[in-house]
Each structure stands twice: as C-alpha cells, then as structure tokens.
Amino acid sequence: MKAPRELxxxxxxxxxxxxxxxxGLGNIWRFSYVVGTNGGAAFIIVYLxxxxxxxxxxxxxxxxxxxxTHKNAIGAFKALAPNTPWWLVGALGVLAGxxxxxxxxxxxxxxxxxxxxxxxxxxxADADFAGVFVGHITSAWAPVIWHAVFMAITLGIIAAGxxxxxxxxxxxxxxxxxxxxxILVLRSLTLPGAGAGVAFILQPDFSELTAQSILGAVGQxxxxxxxxxxxxxxxxxxLNDKDDVPDNGAWxxxxxxxxxxxxxxxxxxxxxxxxxxxxxxxxxAFITLPAVFASMPGGVLFGVLFFVLLSIAALTSAISLxxxxxxxxxDEYDWSRKKASLIIGVLIFLVGVPASLSNGAISFNxxxxxxxxxxxxxxxxxxxxxxxxLTAVFAGHVWTAKKTREYANTERGKIVLGGWYDVLIKYIxxxxxxxxxxxxxxxKFS
Length: 446
Ligand code: PHE
Description:
The chain is built from 18 helices and two strands. The longest helix has 35 residues, at 299-333. The chain has a two-stranded antiparallel sheet. The radius of gyration is 21 Å and the shape is globular. By secondary structure, the protein is mainly α. It has one domain: Hydantoin permease (Orthogonal Bundle), CATH 1.10.4160.10. It has helices at 11-22, 25-37, 41-69, 73-80, 87-120, 129-138, 142-159, 162-189, 195-202, 211-224, 231-236, 246-273, 284-294, 299-333, 337-357, 371-398, 401-408, 419-445; strands at residues 365-366, 369-370. The structure holds phenylalanine. Phenylalanine binds next to helix 1, helix 2, helix 10 and helix 14. Phenylalanine (PHE) binds at residues 21-22, 24-27, 100, 223-224, 226, 229, 231, 317, 320-321.
C-alpha cells in the first residue's frame, strides 16, 4: 500500500522551507552583482516594485495551486484541467528544475570549496584573487568533485523525505543563515568608510536605469523567488487545507526580499570601504569579496562565515529544485522517494559535469555559448518566464482568477486577496512577462 502523502508539520515548517528555496545563490551571489552592475539603488527600487506587482501574485497563485491539488508540478495541472495539454506547463517546470540544478550545484560547489580555500590561506592579502577563481572554475577535477559532494548532500536530504529531510534541514539551516548574515552586516557597516556603500544602495540615481536593467529585474525576481517552475506548487502541495495562502506567501516574499537587501548591506559597504569596484560583475562574490576579506581585520573568519552562509543558502534552494522532479516521479509513477532521489540526483550530477568543464577545461558550446552559460540562459530567458507566463494565464483564465482568489482566501488571515489580484494575474503579470521575454530574446540574438 502507498504511504499517505506527507504534510508540513507546521506553518513555520512551510515558511522556512519555502523561504529556504527562495533564499539562495540568487539573493547573495546573483543579487549583489546584478545590483552592482546596474547602478545600485535605482535598480533596487525597480526590483522591489516588480517583486510586489509580479512576484507576490505569482507566489500566492503557485502556493494555491499546490494546496488545492496536493500534487506535484505536472499533477497539479492534470488535476485541475484533465485531458488538456496544460500539464505541459508543469513539464516545463520539471525540466527547469533539472536544468537549473545541474549548473546551480556547480556554483554551490565553488562556494563550498571557497570555505576551504579561505581557511587554507590561498586567499591571503597577496593572492591573485581573479587568478585563483579562474583557475578553480576552469580546472577539470576540483569543481566537479565539489559539485558531486554538494549533489550527494542534496539528494541525501531529499531521500529522507519532506518532513524528515527538508523540514529538518531547514529548521537548522535557516536560523543559522540569518545569524551569519546579521554578523556580516554588522561587520561591514562598522568598517571605516562604509557610508559610501550604504549610499550606493539607498540613494537612487535613475539616470543609471536602462531597459536592460528593467529586464534584468524581472528575471532576477523570478529566479530569486523560485517562481515559474512549479517549485512553490510542489511545496504548497504539502500544506494542510487549513493553512492560509496569502499570509504565508507574504512571509516567503518578505523573507526573501529581506535577505537580499541584507546581503546588499553586508557586501556593498565593505566593497566601498576597502576601495573595490561594485560593478565587478559575476565575479563579485568570488573575486572581489575574498579581496575585501583579505584586507580587513578578522578577514579569514568573516570570509569563512560568508562562504558558509552562501553554501547553506544554496543547499536549501537545491533541495527544492530536486524535490520538484522527485515529487513528480513519486506522485505520478509511484517511484519510491529513495529511488527517485538517487536516480535523478545522479542524472543531474552527470549533466552538471559538462557544464562545469565548459567553463574552460574543455570547449563545449551550444548556441554559441559555453554549455554552462547556455543552461543559465535557457532557464532565465525561456523556462522560468514562459512557465510563469503560462501559469498566470492558467490561473487567471482557465481555473479563472475569481476561483483562484476565492480558493486562496478560504482561511482568512491578515491579507485577503482583492479584485486587484484578478487584474494583476489576468493582465499585468502575463503582459509584463511577455514583453520582457520578447525584448530579452531580441536583445540576446541581435
Ligand atoms: N530561488 C533560488 C535562489 O535565489 C533559486 C531557485 C530558482 C530555486 C528556482 C528553486 C527554483 O537562489
């Protein structure tokens, strides 16, 4: 006989797991370099507006779809629209989970290896920080081994189940993450000259904004909130029918946004105080920050704390990516959780190997980009926006906005979705995503 589907043990367990999914490399590594290269405060303001107008409605929609059906990403669409092709939206999500995790785990592996590089002294004051980073990611073995270690931990947690694996891990990891982040913010803000970094994230200069940066803000919003790929459908499916949706969704969005902003306060004051360039790009966390740590008192300790923080954030997101795929196989094909975790975990690891190698160890291009960049492009420019767009159309026009809203409102909490929700999910969200997607793709290939 099949065991009954698991449910979160409490409301807090759901919020921690969903916030753990949302808070990840996206909030710390990606957010800081996107803010840094897009001019700081003005970009943050646009990002916050997009989080409120697109992010929050999408979040409650996905959680509602999950709680309503108690099904995985594909099963949820099948349950609400049987014998229609809508299940393909869920399939896109399962594919996205697979694609994202295969390179996400490689980056997470860099982060874990940087804990040891910092302890081992290879990132001391006289190090060639860029050289160490490029040397690491372009080498054949080290990043693949760390990727294997990280995937092994991820699949171990998922194999242990929703309550015993995910629930237990986030109860320890999320508080640890908050404490580490606060320590780093305090260290950064008390460095002499930190004020310029604070001004960078608080004083907007709107002349810095470009159409590209607005596109970037939408992409960042989806990625950081784990939206558009059935992740919040899957996590929502383990909610009790008596659990509220709008308030829980608000908690997840608020925690994710709070962590991103705090990460900004941990990173930019230190970068400015020590005279580094905030617009360093994707290398900010792995090249600039180690240099910042090396030139400040107690740098080894704070460097280690930072990379532990980044690794924890990555782990609680990675488990949610794997869970999307595993939940599908467990629900739809009656696979055991252990078998699904092991097989999918190993497959994702295997796809991640050429992704890692394409950073320099071998030459492996698809559509004119290294395979690693191609996977990132695929999720950011196609899978997540398309998944989000179709999910919004489904909830707004097929299940219908009114039904989605009434269902989400059944357990009245502090927030009650109003008619504004219908307008956002039916028109604003899909149109905004479509515009961003089309301009993004034109820009990319012109
Ligand atoms: N939200 C995670 C981050 O910010 C990434 C992620 C995307 C996780 C999609 C799950 C689903 O790092």
